[in-house]
Amino acid sequence: MVDVVSPALARRIALAAQGFSRPHPEAAGTRALNGVVDRLGLLQIDSVNVFERSHYLPAFSRVGDYDRSLLDRITSGRRGRMVEYWAHQAAYIPRELWPLFEFRRDEYRQAGNDWGGWVADEHGLAGWLRAELTEKGPLRASEIEHDANVRRGPWWGWSDVKRTLEMMFRTGDVVCVDRQRFERVYALPEQALPAELLDASPPVDEAVRTLVALAASAYGIATEADLADYWRMKRAPVRQAIAELEAAGVLLPVEVPGWRTGSRATPAWLHRDARRPRRIETVALLSPFDPVVWFRPRTERLFDFHYRIEIYTPEPDRRFGYYSLPLLIDDRVVGRVDLKSDRKAGVLRVQSAWTEPDAPADTAARLVPVLRRAAAWQGLDDVLVTGRGDLSPALAAELGSAAQLVGVG
C-alpha cells in the first residue's frame, strides 16, 4: 500500500532535505559551506549582482553570514572542490560529478555545428584555441589575441572566439577553471581535472540513475518532473531510473493529497533517508535560482506560491520588483522582497516588500534581523526601506528608519 504524506509534511520533508531544519552555526566556515554543497549537489550561477550573485545566496539562506572568500576557494581555481558545468543551468558542481555528465557533453557533440542558436563551424578556430591553451595555460576569452575575437552579432555581442569557447565548454573540450570579474577562465580538461575523473565516464543509464538518486536526496520528496528538472534531464531515462531506484528501495512511492496532474493523483517518491520533521523553524530569503523555488511547478505545488522573476519584464509591467527574493518563514513561502546592495551609499535598500495572504502577523519582526544580517554580510551599514509593497510600512517601523515609502500598496 502506498504511504500517504500530507502536504504540510511534504513541505517539511522538502525543506529538511534542503538544509532548513538546523539552526545556523555561530560561525559558518568551510565545513558548513561544504555541507550545503553536499546537500544540494550544485550551486546555480547567474550574472545579476544587484543584491548578490546567485551562487552565494543558498549558503547564506541555510547557514547565515559567512566569509564569501571561503566559498570562492571551494568553487574556483584548479584546487577548488567544484567545477563549473551546464548541470541545471550553468552551475558549480562537485568535481566528482563531472564524469556523470559525459552523456550531456556527448549530446552537445552530436548536435553538430548549430545548437542553442550558436553556429560553431569554426573547427579550425577550435583547434587553434586548444593549441593556445596548451601553450599558455588557462585564459579568459578577452585575453586571446585573434582576428576572430571581435564582438559582433547577437548573444551579448560575443566574438567568434567566445562563441567557440562556449561550444567547447559544453562539449567538454575546455572547462571553466575560474572566473575573474565574473568572466570565465577556460582551460583544457587535463589542466584542471585529475586523470581519474577524465577517464571515469560511466554508462548513460548508470549516470542518470546516480543523478536521479542525488536529486531525490536533495529534494526529499519529489515527482518525476521534479527529478528530471533538477539536472535538466529527459523524462524517459529519468522514468526508467526511478523504477530501478524504487526496486532497489532507494525511492519509496508515496501519495500527497492535492498533488494532481489533471484528474489524476501525481505519483511521488520519498527518498529512503529523508527526514520527517515535526516542524521547521527558519526565516530565509531565497535566491530566484535556489532549488527550493527554481522549478516553478514544484514551488506552486509545495507552497501554493506563484513566482516569476521579473528581470526580463519591462519596468512599467513589473508587479513585485526587478530581483524579488522569495521569503521563507518556517515551512511556508509567505512573501517576496526586492533588495539592492547600494555599495556607494553603504545601505541595503528594500525596494519593495510584499506578503502572501497566509503570511504570519509577525512577518516584519522576523524578517528584520535577516535583513540586518544581510546588510552586514554585504559590508553595508544600514537597511533602508525605499519601495512599494504592503510589507514595507511594517518593515520601516521595525527598522525605525525614516523610510521613503513610495506608492505603498
First-last Cα distance: 49 Å
Q: Spans of 5+ residues with little confidence (pLDDT < 50)? A: 115-120
Strand coverage percent? 15-25%
Give me the number of helical elements.
Answer: 15
Strand neighbour order, sheet with most strands: 15-16-17-18-19
Oligomer: single chain
Instruction: Choose one word for the global shape.
Output: globular
Strand pairing plus helix content: what structural class?
Answer: alpha+beta
Biggest sheet details: 5 strands, mixed
Helix amount, in percent? 25-40%
Number of beta strands: 19
Average the pLDDT over all residues and give the rounded result.
91
Q: Nearest-angstrom radius of gyration? A: 22 Å
In brief, what are we looking at here?
The protein is α+β, with helices and mostly antiparallel strands and 409 residues long. 36% of the residues lie in helices and 20% in strands.
